[in-house]
């Protein structure tokens, strides 16, 4: 009853004209930022902090939070239409969203993404409202060994994301981890994989790899096919029937819950949540073998997961003062600048800010849905653009996004290099998804492993003596062994006619999918 009263007071704060206006401004800015790769929610929030200086702290955090979850919501558009993820958290959405667009179902894919994003965000807000204090105490009990085990479990997604050929998926993941280690070692200041190039001292930026492996590689594939037109089929309606809604209901619900609890863990974030949601759904779905070729479930699960995780990352920030992601770290800094100290006392000292922010997230998710659904037909027309116009636009899109990061020509050469690598991977049946996942998790795994070993004075048993770590590693072993057991039970199968010996798919529709 007390929670409902506090939530009612929060809606009173959120529904003031000023706060409603800045909710709209925040989510609109976030949506645009999410569609355009290069800036990202972290940079956008950092740029908007000076604007927030003269504002009421509650209004300021409501606006900045809207930029964050608005960017996650809008990032699916470029992932689905152009295979160019706007933000890291929407990479997994492109695995099935882009194949759906190529088959002429861009409208339906965008509608599924919008509905799943809205559902994931709403479920995340409900969970935030109900169990934030309890979850915050659980999140703080996670140690470095537990985080390492969590990242290892996330990396085992290569088993499912790698398709039929597990070996190629593992090779791609190892390459991704190696790329993540490029640069100066933060603990020993040792140069790793830099080849004497100062431009690599700070490492390889995620956006360069993502746009190269997905967007630029797709440009090369288009040029190789030399076809006309943007889409492979007729444009379908964005309307979803009962069967469509029934198919995505389960993945959306499961992805929302998994995503929220992943987001609560500091450091995991929306990107890890989206991959975990996609991987889990592919494993439990009866039609899991069709993931990667345009399955609507493969759009719903990661979109629900990343939006729920974006909300979940506010739990440790607001209740413990510990940022749950890079973006919430910037939000934490903004709150400190505004004279607000997040932590256990925030619920009692600044209840209007806490509950006003929670209520504004309800409002913001509704605004995002109303804002995005009517624009889907307009977005979908991108695929009707003639290929002679679309290819240069995608190239400019990539170049501007990458060059805007550091104004470095070297980064453009890296972009071209990863584009070539992505194209060769497609031609030879290597999936891009495990490489991206390895890039994201590699440095996080290394940091957690080193911290755990420093705390235990080099004792490796720390990874199995912690109950959370032991449970996660045990689950990882099951995930790795189960496909082998399943294959042994089913026995050897004769290769289908026309299939290549290594199981790589050569069809045009699947050549461009991870």
TrEMBL record:
Transmembrane segments: 20-39, 51-74, 110-132, 138-159, 166-184, 204-224, 320-341, 353-376, 388-416, 428-445, 465-485
Compositional bias per record (Basic and acidic residues), positions renumbered to this chain: 504-514
Pfam families: TctA
Highest taxon in the source lineage: Bacteria
Keyword Transmembrane in annotation: yes
Region (Disordered): 491-514
Compositional bias (Low complexity): 491-503
Keyword Transmembrane helix among UniProt keywords: yes
UniProt KW keywords: Membrane, Transmembrane, Transmembrane helix
UniProt cross-references to InterPro entries, sorted A to Z: DUF112_TM
Span of domain DUF112: 20-437
Protein name: Tripartite tricarboxylate transporter permease
Species per Swiss-Prot/TrEMBL record: Nocardiopsis endophytica
């Amino acid at each position: 009853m007390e929670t409902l009263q506090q939530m009612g007071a929060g809606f009173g704060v959120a529904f003031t004209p000023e706060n409603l206006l800045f909710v709209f401004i925040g989510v609109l800015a976030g949506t645009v930022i999410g569609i355009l790769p290069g800036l990202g929610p972290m940079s956008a929030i950092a740029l908007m902090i000076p604007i927030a200086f003269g504002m009421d702290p509650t209004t300021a955090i409501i606006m900045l939070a809207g930029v964050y979850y608005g960017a996650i919501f809008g990032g699916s558009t470029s992932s689905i239409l152009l295979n160019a993820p706007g933000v890291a958290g929407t990479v997994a959405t492109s695995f099935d969203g882009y194949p759906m667009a190529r088959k002429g179902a861009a409208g339906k894919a965008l509608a599924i993404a919008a509905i799943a994003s809205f559902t994931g965000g709403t479920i995340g807000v409900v969970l935030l409202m109900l169990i934030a204090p309890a979850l915050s105490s659980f999140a703080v009990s996670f140690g470095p060994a537990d985080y390492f085990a969590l990242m290892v479990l996330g990396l085992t997604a290569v088993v499912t994301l790698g398709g039929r050929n597990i070996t190629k998926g593992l090779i791609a993941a190892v390459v991704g981890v190696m790329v993540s280690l490029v640069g100066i070692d933060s603990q020993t200041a040792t140069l790793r994989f830099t080849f004497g190039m100062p431009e690599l001292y700070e490492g390889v930026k995620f956006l360069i790899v993502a746009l190269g492996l997905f967007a630029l590689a797709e440009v090369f594939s288009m040029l190789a096919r030399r076809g006309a037109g943007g889409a492979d089929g007729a444009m379908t309606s964005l309307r979803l029937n009962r069967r469509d809604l029934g198919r995505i209901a389960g993945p959306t619900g499961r992805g929302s819950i998994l995503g929220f609890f992943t987001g609560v863990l500091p450091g995991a974030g929306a990107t890890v949540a989206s991959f975990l949601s996609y991987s889990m759904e592919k494993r439990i779905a009866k039609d899991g073998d069709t993931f990667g070729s345009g399955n609507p479930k493969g759009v719903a699960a990661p979109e629900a997961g990343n939006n729920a995780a974006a909300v979940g990352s506010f739990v440790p920030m607001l209740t413990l003062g510990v940022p749950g992601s890079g973006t919430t770290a910037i939000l934490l800094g903004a709150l400190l600048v505004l004279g607000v100290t997040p932590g256990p006392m925030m619920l009692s000292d600044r209840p209007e800010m806490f509950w006003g922010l929670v209520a504004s997230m309800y409002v913001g998710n509704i605004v995002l849905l109303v804002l995005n659904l009517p624009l889907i037909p307009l977005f979908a027309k991108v695929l009707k653009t003639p290929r002679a116009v679309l290819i240069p636009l995608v190239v400019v899109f990539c170049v501007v996004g990458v060059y805007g990061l550091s104004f470095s020509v070297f980064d453009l050469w890296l972009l071209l290099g990863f584009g070539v690598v992505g194209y060769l991977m497609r031609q030879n049946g290597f999936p891009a998804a495990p490489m991206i996942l390895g890039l994201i998790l590699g440095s996080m795994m290394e940091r957690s492993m080193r911290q755990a070993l420093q705390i235990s004075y080099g004792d490796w048993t720390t990874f199995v003596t912690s109950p959370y770590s032991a449970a996660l590693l045990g689950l990882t072993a099951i995930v790795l062994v189960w496909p082998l057991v399943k294959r042994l039970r089913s026995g050897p199968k004769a290769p289908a006619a026309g299939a290549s010996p290594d199981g790589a798919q050569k069809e045009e529709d699947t050549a461009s999918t991870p």
